[in-house]
Write a structure and sequence with these properties.
single chain; 602 residues; alpha/beta; ABC transporter involved in vitamin B12 uptake, BtuC; Rossmann fold; six-stranded mixed beta sheet; elongated; binds adenosine-5'-triphosphate
Length: 602
C-alpha cells in the first residue's frame, strides 16, 4: 500500500512571510514599494477570503468587491458624515458587511456554477450604480475625500512605511486563521461539501449552514480589507469597487492556485506588482500583462503554489532515504473491543401513501409500508420500479407529491436530508458517493461529526472503532482512488454507521462485487443488526437479498405488489411475472449462512 506524502510548506512559508514583514521596513529605502506592498496586503486579504469560499463550496464569487466597497464606504460615512469615533465606525462597517453578506448568501448559494457567478456579478454592478448615483451620501463618481487616517498611539500609521506593518499583520493574521480553519474539522467538512454535497448532507451535515458561514466569513475578509483601504487612502471612489476589482481577485486566486491560501497571497503579489514592473512599456503594458498571465496559466494550470508544491514533493521523494509505505500507516491499538456506537431505537419507519412524480412520470404511486427495527429488510423490483426513488424520498433528496413518512412518532416528511440523517436514517448510494481528495478515515470522520463539534481530537478514537467494525483500519490512510469497489461500499457503510443511525438504507451493496465480497457484505449487514442498526437493502442480486432479508417488499412500476418473507416472495406468482421470471432463478442463488460469528465487532 502506498501512502501519499506531502511536504508541509504552509506554516513555514507563512512564518517566512511574517519575518519578512518584520524586517523589510528596516532594509527597503524606497517608500513607493510600501505603497505597492500595502495594496498587495489588501488584495491578499480579499483573495484569501475568496479562497476560503472556494474551498468550502467549490464556488467562485465575482462580486466580492461589493463587501470591499461596503466596508470602505460605511466606515467613511460613519466617521466623516456622522462624526462617529473610529472604533464605532469600524464596528458599523463590520456589521454592515455581515448583515449584507448574510442576506445575499441565501439567494446566491442556492445557485450553482455559472449562475452563482452571474448573480454575484450582478450584485457588484448594482453596488457600483448605487455608489455613483447616491451622491449625497457617497459623493458619487467624484469620490469621498477626507477619511481620517489611522493612528495607534506610539505606532506610526500615517506613512506608507508605517501602515505596512499593520497591513502585513492583518494579511498574515487572516492567512494563519484561514490555514488553521482549513486544517480543522470544520475545514474537513467544508471540503467534504465541496466534493460531494448531497452525500455530506445525507450524513447529517447542514450543508447550507456551512456554506452560508463560509460566504459570510469570506465577505468579512473583503470588508475588513475595504476598511483598511479607506483609512489608508483617505479617499475612495466607486471605480475601486467595480466588477474589475472582483475579476482581478478571482484572477489572482486562479494564478496562485484556487482554494490555496499561500497561492492567493502569491497571486496578489505577482498581479499587483506586474503592472508596476511593466509600466515602462507604456502601450505594450497590457499586451505583456496578458502574455505573462497566459504563460503562467498554461505552464501551471493548477496555479503557482500547487505547481511549486508538486516540485517540492517530487524533490523530497527523490531525497527520501526511507520508504514511506505501510510504516506510516496509523495502526492504533483500540481501547477494548467495545462495539461501535450502539444504534438508536427510533421506533418503526412508517411510509403512508407516498407518491413521487418526475414531470409526467409517476415513479411512486401511493406506497405504504412499515419497516420494523431489528431485522434486515429488502426492497426489490425490476429496473425502474422506483426503489431508489423510495430511498431518495425517505432521505429527503426528492420531495414527494403526497404521502407521509414517520420515524417512530416523528413525522419527517419534507425534512431536509441532513435533518433526516440527524433523526436517525443513514444511507449508501447505488454508485458510491465518496470524496476523491479524502482518506478512508476522513470519510468516517465526516459521518462522526453528526450532532458533534467537528474536532479532530474528540472524534479520533470513535473513528477507529467504526473503521475496525468494517475491517478498514488497515486502509484508513488511503485515498478512495486507491481502494477497490468492495472497499468503497464498506467506506459508505462505515460513514453511514458513524452518524449513529437507527436505519441505514443500503442501495445495491452487491452491485459489481464477486461472490466472496457479496458474502462479506451479507456479514456486515448481519453485524449491523447486532449493534442495533436496521439495514433496508435494495439489490438485484437475489442470492444476497433472499439470504439476508427477513422480509422482502417488491416494487413494480412504482407500486408494492408483494410483501412477505423470502419464501413467500419466491412463491408469489405476481412477483414471478413482474420480476423474477421463475422460482428456479431465485433458488439457484448461492446462500450465506444467517448470523455471523466474529464479523465486525459484534
Ligand atoms: N431525477 C429523476 N428525474 C426524472 N425521472 C427519474 C428521476 N429519478 C428516477 N426517475 C425515473 O423514475 C423511475 C424510477 O426510477 P428508480 O431509479 O427509482 O428505479 P429503480 O427501481 O431504483 O431502478 P434501478 O434498479 O434500475 O436502479 C424510472 O422510470 C426513472 O427513469
Amino acid at each position: 500500500m502506498r501512502v501519499e506524502k506531502k511536504t508541509a510548506i504552509y506554516f513555514p512559508a507563512l512564518i517566512c512571510l511574517s519575518l519578512s514583514g518584520l524586517f523589510l521596513p528596516s532594509f527597503i529605502k524606497n517608500d513607493y514599494l510600501f505603497v505597492i506592498l500595502n495594496v498587495v496586503a489588501f488584495n491578499g486579504i480579499a483573495v484569501t477570503g475568496l479562497n476560503l469560499l472556494y474551498d468550502a463550496t467549490g464556488q467562485v464569487s465575482l462580486g466580492h468587491a461589493v463587501f470591499y466597497g461596503l466596508g470602505a464606504y460605511t466606515t467613511a460615512v460613519l466617521s466623516v458624515t456622522f462624526g462617529l469615533p473610529l472604533w464605532t465606525a469600524w464596528m458599523g462597517s463590520v456589521a454592515m458587511v455581515l448583515v449584507s453578506s448574510f442576506i445575499l448568501a441565501f439567494p446566491t448559494l442556492r445557485l450553482h456554477g455559472h449562475y452563482m457567478v452571474m448573480a454575484t456579478l450582478g450584485c457588484n454592478i448594482i453596488l457600483t450604480v448605487i455608489l455613483n448615483q447616491w451622491e449625497s451620501l457617497t459623493g458619487g463618481p467624484s469620490g469621498f475625500p477626507g477619511i481620517p487616517e489611522l493612528s495607534a498611539g506610539f505606532v506610526e500609521l500615517s506613512t506608507d512605511r508605517g501602515f505596512f506593518r499593520l497591513a502585513w499583520i492583518a494579511l498574515l493574521g487572516f492567512a494563519f486563521a484561514t490555514v488553521a480553519l482549513q486544517k480543522s474539522g470544520v475545514g474537513k467538512i467544508f471540503r467534504a461539501i465541496r466534493q460531494n454535497e448531497i452525500a455530506t448532507e445525507c450524513c447529517g451535515t447542514n450543508t447550507t449552514g456551512y456554506k452560508i458561514f463560509a460566504f459570510v466569513l469570506s465577505a468579512l475578509y473583503a470588508g475588513i480589507a475595504g476598511i483598511l483601504y479607506a483609512h489608508y487612502m483617505s479617499f475612495i471612489s466607486p471605480k475601486t469597487f467595480g466588477v474589475f476589482r472582483s475579476l482581478e481577485w478571482v484572477t489572482m486566486a486562479v494564478v496562485g492556485g484556487m482554494g490555496n491560501v499561500l497561492g492567493g497571497i502569491l497571486g496578489a503579489f505577482v498581479l499587483t506588482l506586474l503592472p508596476e514592473l511593466l509600466h515602462a512599456l507604456e502601450e505594450l503594458q497590457v499586451l505583456f500583462y496578458g502574455i505573462v498571465l497566459m504563460s503562467v496559466l498554461i505552464l501551471c494550470p493548477q496555479g503557482m503554489v500547487p505547481a511549486i508544491r508538486s516540485l517540492v514533493d517530487r524533490f523530497s521523494a527523490l531525497t527520501e532515504t526511507e520508504a514511506c509505505g505501510d510504516k506510516s500507516l496509523k495502526k492504533k491499538t483500540l481501547r477494548g473491543a467495545t462495539p461501535v456506537r450502539a444504534g438508536r431505537n427510533c421506533g418503526k419507519l412508517r411510509i403512508e401513501g407516498l407518491s413521487v412524480n418526475f414531470g409526467g412520470l409517476q415513479a411512486l404511486s401511493s406506497v405504504s409500508v412499515t419497516f420494523d427495527p431489528g431485522r434486515i429488510h429488502a426492497v426489490i423490483g425490476p429496473n425502474g420500479a422506483g426503489k431508489t426513488t423510495l430511498f431518495n424520498a425517505v432521505c429527503g433528496i426528492v420531495k414527494p407529491r403526497s404521502g407521509k413518512i414517520f420515524l417512530g412518532d416523528l413525522e419527517i416528511t419534507g425534512f431536509s436530508p441532513h435533518k433526516i440523517a440527524l433523526s436517525g436514517i443513514g444511507r449508501t448510494f447505488q454508485v458510491p458517493q465518496l470524496y476523491s481528495e479524502f482518506s478512508v478515515r476522513d470519510h468516517v470522520f465526516v459521518g462522526m461529526c453528526v450532532g458533534r463539534l467537528p474536532l479532530n481530537g474528540m472524534i479520533g478514537d470513535d473513528v477507529d472503532e467504526v473503521l475496525r467494525f468494517f475491517d478498514l483500519l488497515e486502509l484508513s490512510e488511503l485515498k478512495v482512488g486507491e481502494v477497490s469497489l468492495f472497499d468503497k461500499k464498506r467506506i459508505e457503510l462505515a460513514r453511514a454507521l458513524a452518524a449513529n443511525p437507527a436505519y441505514i438504507l443500503v442501495d445495491e451493496p452487491g452491485g459489481g462485487l464477486n461472490e466472496e465480497e457479496k458474502e462479506a457484505v451479507a456479514r456486515y449487514l448481519f453485524a449491523l443488526t447486532k449493534v442495533g442498526v436496521t439495514p433496508i437493502v435494495v439489490d438485484h442480486h437475489m442470492d444476497l437479498v433472499m439470504n439476508v432479508a427477513e422480509r422482502v417488499v417488491v416494487l413494480h412500476q412504482g407500486q408494492i405488489i408483494a410483501d412477505g418473507t423470502p419464501d413467500e416472495i419466491v412463491e408469489n406468482p405476481r412477483v414471478a411475472d413482474a420480476y423474477l421470471g421463475s422460482r428456479q432463478k431465485v433458488l439457484s442463488g448461492g446462500r450465506v449462512e444467517r448470523g455471523c460469528e466474529g464479523c465486525g465487532n459484534a
